[in-house]
Each structure stands twice: as structure tokens, then as C-alpha cells.
Design brief:
By secondary structure, the chain is an all-alpha fold. The protein has 2 helices and no strands. About 10% of the residues are buried.
Length: about 60
């Protein structure tokens, strides 16, 4: 994979993960605590971790094929 494909893959995974975790933390706080609060720190952290790891795994798979 070239660098452009890696960046597109990272951006896609990061965006999907960020939106998903933001929505989950919002619903968790709304249902569990009665407050409409999003935990942005957790959303950013998970998006970064999953973006790096899943992009790395995909590049390793592409390299082996």
C-alpha cells in the first residue's frame, strides 16, 4: 500500500470509530445518568487507537498478498 491509501484508510477508520464511540458515550450518559454529555476524550482516544491498529493490520495483509 502506498502512503495515500494508508492515509485514506486511517481517515475512514478514524471517522467511523469516532462517530460510533461519541454516539455510544452520549447514549450511555443519557440512559445511565440522565445527562446529554459526550465523552470527547474517550472518543478521540478510541478513534486514534483503532485507526492506527486497523490500518496497520490491513497494510500487513496487503503486503502478504
Amino acid at each position: 500500500m502506498n502512503i495515500k491509501a494508508l492515509l485514506v484508510e486511517f481517515k475512514t477508520v478514524f471517522t467511523v470509530t469516532f462517530i460510533t464511540v461519541a454516539l455510544v458515550t452520549f447514549l450511555w450518559n443519557l440512559i445511565g445518568h440522565g445527562q446529554s454529555v459526550v465523552d470527547w476524550e474517550t472518543s478521540f482516544r478510541f478513534a486514534t487507537i483503532f485507526g492506527v491498529i486497523l490500518t496497520w493490520v490491513k497494510s500487513r495483509e496487503a503486503r502478504n498478498q
